[in-house]
Amino acid sequence: MNRFFVLLLLLLAPASALAAPLPIPATFGVAESLLSASSSPGNAYLAGASVVSTAPVAGDLSAFGGSVIIAAPVVGDELLFAGSASVRAPVAGDLRAVGANLKIEEPVGGDLIAFGYEVYDSGHPSGNVFIIAANATLANGAGGPVTIYGNTISLAGNFASDVTIVATGRLTLAASTTIRGALTYEAPEPAVIPASATITGNVNYTNASYLPDVGTSRILAFVSVGFFLFARILGALILAGLLAGLFPRLAEAIALRAYQGRPRGIFLAMLLGFGILVATPVLILLLALTFVGMGLALLLGILYALLVLLALLYAGILVGSMLVRRYSKREVVLWHDGILGMLVLSLISLVPFIGILVVLLFFLFTAGTLLLIFFQYVFAREERTAELI
Predict the structure, then answer these.
(1) What residues form the membrane-spanning segments (predicted)?
(2) What gap in Å lies between CA 110 and CA 96, rounded to an integer?
(3) Could you tell me if 48 and 32 are in contact, meaning their C-beta atoms sit under 8 angstroms apart?
(4) Cα atoms in the Cβ-side hemisphere of radius 13 Å centred on 141
(5) Host domain of residue 330
(6) Residues forming beta bridges with residue 172, ordered by sequence position
(7) In terms of Cα–Cα distance, which of 42, 44, 43, 115 is closest to 85?
(8) Is 332 exposed, middle or buried (0-12, 13-18, 19+ CB in 10 A)?
(9) Are the beta carbons of 59 and 78 closer than 8 angstroms?
(10) 261 and 179 in one domain?
(11) Are strands 44-53 and 163-167 parallel, antiparallel or unpaired?
(12) 227 with 97, same domain?
């Protein structure tokens, strides 16, 4: 395991570290809680859940961990990958850091590149600054050009060059902030620039609203509704195909009652389905009002939801079996008949008013028929009734 971390750190090491002379020894440290208290004459590679470096590093420093604290100077570059990282000593070279919470408190002699959720720098980096963070703060200026992408961005101190900001939220400049160059920024609203701030170059503001306009909102709404309908129809197709393939006898029994049943029997099945659909929620509510009936109400609610789901799915299977009987002259129900029927029923349901009525009639018939088949199975007098399931 230690060798794996060593190889990982070697791959993440800065390019200058690989170009270091071979005679200079490197320092490696891997532990769950690592305290590096011995100075390194060359590069240092540290990894652990918690990493603390309190000894100077004459070369480059690469650290990987959940929590990283660098409390000693680094002569070369510094590379940090951490959940939270705190740099409390100067870095003579470049500093590159990736983490959720990054805090740089001492000067950086080279460039500063940081990616994180929250980045705070008060060390006044001498080189270029490039930051991508949700919340970014430069509390002590910078010696080179600054580029920041983030949500809430705060600037303070003396900036020796141009500053470029892209903010989805707000840009704020502290009092007495000095920018010896141009300030170019994009944000939904103008930045808060106090009167004591000094900007020697131009201030270029671009109003960039990241909220969609009315036309875009309508398009997004249509796309969202379309995606929801597609997902709903696709899920119904899959479930109907599974039920038709796993329980073909039950699907054939429902189709047989629809074909061979008299109009009076079909009407009674619909009436039974309507009665169950309306009366069951009332019964569940009455049972839930009593302490003794709460458990029974919960069980009845689960059975009711299962019945509604099965009735909707078998309504689509019934439509598929009717189409197969009509055009293919086949009475056996296959899994793709369920998919076909559910697709047709889903398309019918999109027709205003009439489509909902057609789906409701099929649903009431299949709900009533499923209940009749269930009662016949429970109170069966012949063994062959079990073949329906």
Answers:
(1) 219-247, 267-292, 298-320, 332-350, 356-379
(2) 10
(3) yes
(4) 19
(5) 214-388
(6) 154, 192
(7) 115
(8) exposed
(9) no
(10) no
(11) unpaired
(12) no
For residues 109 and 13, state if they share a domain: yes
Residue among 28, 103, 102, 97 at smallest CA distance from 59: 28
Based on the domain organization, do 106 and 185 belong to the same domain? yes
Nearest to 191 by CA among 162, 170, 208, 177: 170
Number of domains in the chain: 2
- What does each C-alpha distance from 94 to 129, 225, 226 come to in angstroms? 10, 49, 50
Residues 142 and 281 in one domain: no
Q: Which of 150, 180, 207 is the last residue of a domain?
A: 207
Quickly count: other Cβ atoms within 10 Å of residue 99's Cβ: 24
> Using an 8 Å Cβ cutoff, are 80 and 60 in contact?
no
The closest alpha carbon to 73, from 99, 113, 40, belongs to: 40
| pTM for the structure as a whole | 0.54
**Rounded (10°) angle between helices 248-260 and 263-288:** 120
C-alpha dihedral over 305, 310, 316, 317, to 10 degrees?
180
What are the structure tokens assigned to 92, written together? Answer: 């003579």
Among 155, 174, 207, identify where a domain stops.
207
265 plus 364 within the same structural domain: yes
Residues 176 and 77 in one domain: yes
Using one digit for the tens of pLDDT, what is the confidence trace for 115-160? 999 999 999 999 999 999 999 999 999 999 999 999 999 999 999 9
Q: Are 371 and 304 in contact (CB under 8 A)?
A: no
pLDDT tens digits, one per residue of 247-278: 888 888 888 888 776 778 888 888 888 888 88
Within 8 A by CB and 6+ apart from 318, the residues are 251, 254, 255, 258, 341, 362, 365, 366
Same domain, 251 and 330: yes
